[in-house]
Amino acid sequence: MFLLYFIIVVSFIDTFSQLPIITPFSMSLGASSLLVGIIIAAYSLSNIFGNIFSGLLVDRVGAKRILCVGMIAVSLFLLLYAFVTTPKQLLMVRFLHGLAGDSSYQQLLLF
């Protein structure tokens, strides 16, 4: 049980460690103030839909598969941050990261 909670804590670190740096990063890419706000909000907005969608999928295919797919997807989306060169790319990566983000981690609680 300790291992599961440890994985949950480590998994959430990717989300909360980005919050203080995402604004300066998006501004360094040339984003306007409005676009910076949209980039920051994109994660939360898409995460709502990701949570709903993953909940439906858990009922159909089981929590273990959704957890594995979600963890792999989040890993790939985190890797994409290294290749972002424009504010629009950052917006897309943030949206995709939010879609797969916390929804997969919450499935750990089902085990």
What would your notes on this structure say?
It is a single chain. The chain has 111 residues and is mainly alpha-helical. The chain has one domain (2-110). It is built from four helices and no strands. Helix 3 (63-80) packs antiparallel against helix 4 (87-106). The radius of gyration is 15 Å and the shape is elongated. This is Putative 3-hydroxyphenylpropionic transporter MhpT.
What's this entry about, in short?
The protein is 85% helix and 0% strand. With 111 residues, it is mainly alpha-helical.
The biggest beta sheet reads: none
Beta-strand content bin: under 5%
Query: Ends: how far apart?
Result: 9 Å
Overall tally of structural domains: 1
Strands, total number:
0
Q: Which overall shape is indicated by the principal axes computed on the Cα atoms? A: elongated
Unreliable segments (pLDDT under 50, ≥5 consecutive)?
Answer: none
What is the helix tally? 4
Structural class: mainly alpha
The radius of gyration over CA amounts to 15 Å
SSE run: HHHH
Mean pLDDT: 84
Helix content: over 70%
